[in-house]
Amino acid sequence: MKIKPQIDFSVVDEIIGRYENPSESLISLLQDIQEEYGYLPTEVMVRISEQAGIPLSRLMGVATFYSQFKLNAPGKYKVLVCMGTACHVNNGERVADAVAKTLGVKEGETTADGLFSWEEVACLGCCSLSPVMMINGQVYGKLDGKKVEQVINDIRKAELERAGQ
Amino acid sequence: MRFMIGCGSCGIAAGAEEVAKSVRERLSAEHSVTVDLVGCNGMCFAEPLMQVKDDEGNDYYYGRLTGEKAVKIVDAFLNGEIPEENKIEGDELKFLKGQTRIALRHCGIIDPESIDSYIEAGGYTAFDKILKMTPDEVIEQIKISGLRGRGGAGFPTWFKWEAARKENTEEKYIVCNADEGDPGAFMDRSVLEGDPHSVLEGMMVAGYAIGAKCGIIYVRAEYPLAVKRLTIAINQLREKGLLGKNIKGSDFEFDFKIMKGAGAFVCGEETALLASLGGDRGMPTPKPPFPAQKGFRKQPTNINNVETFANVPWIIENGGEAFAAMGTEDSKGTKVFALAGKVKYGGLVEVPMGMTIRQIVFDICGGIKNGKKIKGVQIGGPSGGCLPEELLDTPIDYKSIGATGAIMGSGGLVVMDEDTCMVDMARFFMDFTSKESCGKCVPCRVGTTRMLEILNRIVKGEGREGDMELLQSLGSSIRDSALCGLGNSAPNPVLTTMRYFKDEYTAHIEEKCCPSFKCASLIKYEINPEKCTGCTLCGRKCPTKAITGSVKNPHVIDKDKCIACGECAASCRFGAIFKVSGEAVRYE
């Protein structure tokens, strides 16, 4: 079993301290937390509740309402597959199928090596390049099954090489 | 001479940064030229783009560039030549020339990261002008202009401003709704990335008119470049002393805040947006009270969309009459549309109200890709509807579009050709709205789910008699009883497709056939033994090993194993693989 790294609560407290009114700024606060940890760890949510006096139920309510918030650790590379109208019309579902096949995990899951996670998202706004996917902020357009496989395998290869060094 | 390189997030994705880098490296200080990184001019179909303005003021447009190609163009211009390669002209240039640009007036022309570039283009003169006007005079100009909200519902802007102005409280807010979530619409992103100051100036004018001191921009977190450029723009305003107390020696006080949304389509609805601004789940509340009475922090709040605000400085500068001179009786000015789908030249198009959909698709955007036939357009996103070819002569105005059962919406216009299945399209939008339903009211939460289940059944070939009547009745109930605009309009894509493409529903339900060959469960692939050369390529491509056959002998597809993914047909070089749905047959 992997031992979870100890979370440094001073970082959490510092983030809470950025906001005059943490309750009203809850979404921005949780965005900062997610920026720091990549997701919203349960221990951190409990800490926020205690420190800012916000019921844990409300924190979880907000965290589960918005699609941006993740309650599980994502992969190092976050693959977002666009499900917008233009991508749909241009066979976007095949991109999703290819991502699932290449990674071997279902939507919302992370690969065993912790490298990749993937999810379907609403329109990324690059309709003229459809179908598209985004990996850590970089957009890949005019995709087909082969291109998807190539992009992901290139990243995987680069990571393996880095690990081998 | 000036070189302008389009660096919106779509341009960057297409490689604009490499183009910019190469052009900059090529030029040194001795060349008396400027290179500006500008926003997107909307010609998404030809990205990466570069516009060249020569010393006589002539404009030349180049597209589909790489760093190398761009350097060649720069070299030619430095030699006094006008290169032909990669030049955008003819029909492609008509895309730009056929437009009337107000909201997009600076997009692709000014440097969005420079306030001086905006001021040089006439920016902040509207703000100077209003400081000499009374708030009522400002609202009067907006009233004369006839400007209506560009976010979807089309509510008169002046009416909202006046309602907020009449409230007698110290604390008021201006909110810019930049939570552009309609799949297929990207005009707000383009304006924020290409001309953030025009939105900020519009908000300052609104703040002055209603008596608000704080402007909040609620922007999608998925638009990082828009957030970055807005942040830069606000900091520049502050450096210039145009924010804070006693701006330009007047009594007016104003400042901005940016709030990033966290991914919920329903937050585009104004009461849900307000809940989200307050740190809660973005769930709508019944109106009244309207935001103009009780909005953010329970104070009077005026919420307008990005494109609405971007029009405001132009209206103040040129007068309300100039804006009202464009458009139709009921809809004034211009509207930006995001053209996508099967259209030849996709991108952003701003046209005067009253132009027909056909003119936009064919005269400006070059018609349909790959010589196919148009089937219809989807206008207004998940809240809008699908209109058939016969209705393409409908003029773009709130009333005419509304009469078709669709809505103007925020301006997404997805063009569909004969390969698009309308039942699948309706299913796609229902899937979207049911996922995005906030769950607060029963009609939307349960109703959209039930409608989706029926549609899922139909596209799988399990449709039953009476399904269409059931969809109709569910759709009408949801439309009449859901709590917010998202719910009320959620059945629109289904209701309009049933109204205009009834045959397709009947084919799916009764004949178990998808006339567009799109619904995977209703099509099968077969191999024509006379055309098949036995090259074995399709068999290797097939993910389910459904194709068998020996080398140089015709192959066969096992229908039970085939998942109709289409990989085989896409790989076949001899056109031997065809689709069958019901009685119909089609070769790729």
Quick gist of this model?
The complex is a heterodimer of chains A (165) and B (588). With 165 residues, chain A is α+β, with helices and mostly antiparallel strands. Chain A has 7 helices and 4 strands.
Describe the structure in your own words.
The complex is a heterodimer of chains A (165) and B (588). Chain A is α+β, with helices and mostly antiparallel strands and 165 residues long. Chain A folds into two domains: 9-65, no CATH class; 77-164, Glutaredoxin (3-Layer(aba) Sandwich), CATH 3.40.30. Chain A contains seven helices and four strands. Chain A has a four-stranded mixed beta sheet with strand order 2-1-3-4, covered by helices on one side. The model of chain A has no long low-confidence stretch (mean pLDDT 89). Chain B contains 24 helices and 18 strands. Chain B has a five-stranded mixed beta sheet with strand order 10-9-13-11-12. A four-stranded mixed beta sheet of chain B has the order 2-1-3-4, covered by helices on one side. In chain B, α2 runs parallel beside α3 (67-78), α10 crosses α13 (306-318) and α18 (442-459) runs antiparallel to α19. The longest helix of chain B has 18 residues, at 442-459. Chain B starts with a strand and ends with a strand. The model of chain B has no long low-confidence stretch (mean pLDDT 94).
Question: What labels would you give this structure?
Answer:
heterodimer, A: about 160 residues, alpha+beta, Glutaredoxin, 2 domains, about 50% helix, globular, B: about 600 residues, alpha/beta, five-stranded mixed β-sheet, four-stranded mixed β-sheet
